[in-house]
Amino acid sequence: MKHIYLILLSCVVWGCSLEEEARDQITEEQAFTNASDLYLNTVATLYNYVGGNTDGQGLQGTCRGVYDLQTFGSDEALLPTRGVDWYDGGIWQAMYKHSWSAGHELPKNAWLYLYKVITLCNYSLEKLEQYQKMAGPMNYLIWTSEVRALRAMYYWYLIDLFGDVPLITSSVMDMNRVTREKRSVVFEFIMKEMDMAIHQLSPSNSVREGDYYGRITMPVCYFVMAKMMLNSGVYLGTTDVAQYMEQCIEYCNAIEDLGYSLEEKYESNFIVYNENSKENIFVIPMDKHLYSNQQQNMHRSYHYRHAAAYGFTGENGTCATLQTLKMYGYGTDNVDNRFYMNFYAGPVYDLDGDPVLDRTGQQLVYYPDKVEMDLSFSDYVETAGARMKKYEVDKNASKDGKLMDNDIVLFRFADVLLMRAEAYLRLGKASQGQKDLDLVRKRARMKPVELTMENLERERFVELCWEGWRRQDMIRFGHYKSLFQGEDGDEPVDESDGHTTVFPIPADVRALNQNLTQNQGY
Fold first, then answer.
1. Within a 10 A sphere around the Cβ of 319, how many other Cβ atoms?
2. Which residues, 6 or more positions from 219, have their beta carbon under 8 angstroms from its beta carbon?
3. Considering Cα of 202, then 205, then 211, then 213, what sign does the dihedral take?
4. Quick one: which of 51, 60, 102, 167 could link to 181 by a disulfide (CB 3.0–4.6 Å)?
């Protein structure tokens, strides 16, 4: 289904006008003439914002927003300074060092984007209420449930990134007067909304083309609820998590009961036209002819000549950290099979198997172990670091390779198995979770390992790399800390108080609303 945003909104979220987002603008009277148009302009339109094509927009696929906070705020990836490239005012070094401030661009982008979508959800709920008779009783219940579940999911991203946040349920609320609610209060709100909505939603698969393609359905809700339970210790500030782990297992079981399972091959989840995956649970639909959503992450990682070999352009930026190499066992006899599914490393070849040449006419080679935060004076300024692979190259992609036909994977069943294994482990029932860990490793053709916290964390890293979970995992496993050890008088950030486990409330947002307190340590 192609979602087109029709009605002109005149909402403002902390100084960010939503009017500029409208397309094919028509009046409210024209937009709400029948039930079909009502659905299109209150529910379907919201899915235009799950992906994106400009900085800070979308949950994944674009730059300088939610995904970058989760990825570059972890030990999984970095965007090193490469001579005159990628310093960008120091924002990427700050992400690597965890030295971000309230004025940093990425938290601001994520905050404004998440609240923009929440405001749109609130507006849609108000319009559904206003035109309830037009919708009819059954449609009204189902449509409002879908919007409430989507809004709850966005609040989950907010509490994960920022901790205590304003809880806004009206599109006409004065954003410059709201206050922050405790993380625990918003946690309860999210779970209540999800629990209410899930029973009205379709159990249908959300990744297959059809009526439910790219939409919030029952399994998507179960996944978010399982994540909420798994991270309850962090979100609620408690060590008494047994009841939440039991619930996590229940939600994971519910997803499995709906028919999800692992693909035979890891790579199948990320191929061109991956809509038939039996493992993927929630995706950002990609279709170069229908949607404007972009996948910019490989474009940002490819060396210029590497991208050109595919007919694209590249920005020669993102790469793996040394910690990533360690987690995969790179350079040892026991390198994890998934390393070369997720990364380009060593000599580079085009799609026909011919060597890609660098600027000097020699074969382009990526040097994974030569990476460091600032490569300005390195002999490997252009070639240091293993580069993002993950998704099959769509040779027919357009827009410099960013408009491709591989749907962007947000949630998948391998994560469900690893969540369930972890929940069992935290309950002291490792033997019951062992089979889930074994299934994931068997698919990757890796030998079984004992289910321990250390092994499970490593498995999550190597299985889910580049999927936006590493920061959250590091925090939950209790060792969230920058890899930066200090150099040339630049001391590492003192993270002993845990303040970097949430990002600062953006300074520009607080300047408009003095009622918003700042997170500790900023």
1. 27
2. 203, 205, 206, 254, 255, 258, 260, 281, 282
3. positive
4. 167
Three-class DSSP category at 87: coil
Q: What is the 3-state secondary structure (H, E, C) of 127-159?
A: HHHHCHHHHCHHHHHHHHHHHHHHHHHHHHHHH
* Structure tokens that stand for 502 in this block: 């949430």
DSSP-assigned letters across all residues of 185-231: HHHHHHHHHHHHHHTTS----SSSSSTTTTS--HHHHHHHHHHHHHT
Amino acid at residue number 225: M
Are 512 and 14 contacting, i.e. CB atoms less than 8 angstroms apart? yes
Query: From the CB of residue 388, how many other CB atoms can be counted at a distance below 10 Å?
Result: 23
For residue 414 the two structure tokens come to 């391998």
Beta-carbon contacts of residue 390 (< 8 Å; ≥ 6 apart)? 270, 297, 298, 341, 342, 465, 466
Q: What is the DSSP letter of 235?
A: H
Residues 189-240 have pLDDT tens digits of 999 999 999 999 999 999 999 999 999 999 999 999 999 999 999 999 999 9
Tokens 């009017």 appear where? Answer: 19
The pLDDT, as a whole number, for residue 118 is 98
| Residue 490 bridge partners (DSSP) | 487
Token couple for 369: 């172990």
Domains for the chain: give ranges and CATH numbers: 1-178+188-195 (1.25.40.390)
Sign of torsion over alpha carbons 339, 91, 305, 284: positive
Mean pLDDT, to the nearest integer, of 413-421?
A: 99
- Per-residue three-class SS string for 243-303: HHHHHHHHHHHHHHHCCCCCCCCHHHHHCCCCCCCCCEEEEECCCCCCCCCCCCHHHHHCC
Quick one: tokens of 264?
């035979």
Region class of 273: left (phi > 0), else alpha (psi between -120 and 50), else beta: left
Residue carrying the six token digits 């970097």? 500
CA dihedral angle for residue 440, residue 328, residue 458, residue 235, rounded to 10 degrees: -110
CA distance 172 to 436: 46
pTM: 0.96
| Residue 83 near residue 306 (C-beta atoms within 8 A) | no
118-131 pLDDT, tens digit each: 999 999 999 999 99
Span 3-39, pLDDT tens digits: 434 443 444 566 554 444 444 567 777 788 999 999 9
What is the pLDDT of the chain when averaged over all its residues? 95
DSSP state of 510: H
The pLDDT value recorded for residue 30 is 78
Q: What SS3 class is residue 292?
A: coil
Q: Distance between CA atoms of 268 and 483, rounded to whole angstroms?
A: 32
Distance CA(254)–CA(258), nearest Å, equals 6
Distance, in Å, from the CA atom of 261 to the CA atom of 413, rounded to the nearest integer, reads 6
Residues 345-365 pLDDT 10s:
999 999 999 999 999 999 999
